[in-house]
Amino acid sequence: MIDNMLIARAASCDVRARLYANGHDLRDPLLSPVYGDLRGFPPTLLLSGTRDLLLSNTVRMHRKLRQAGVESVLEVFEGQPHGAWYREASAPESKDAFEEIARFFDKHLGK
Length: 111
Fold this sequence. Notes:
Elements: H1 13-21, E1 44-49, H2 55-67, E2 72-77, H3 84-87, H4 92-109
Parallel strand pairs: 1-2
């Protein structure tokens, strides 16, 4: 119950992943890009929190992007669960997240 966004009774992340994959190999890059060739990906901004169940996977993706020569920015917000910045837009962390997103877009898409 550390991540209050990604919760469901009797459903672990593994159960959900298998449901999502629908019988396909979980290492298929079309299901999980971290297993693919990331060269040529556009600059990428990744947001997570210290209470996000997917934090480790987000870090893995960030490192894989960097290893492929892709500009990748990882922002981790203290005490935040998965997608918290989206759920409560008035929270200080959400405001910080939206400012980071705006800066990233300004840099890569221009004003």
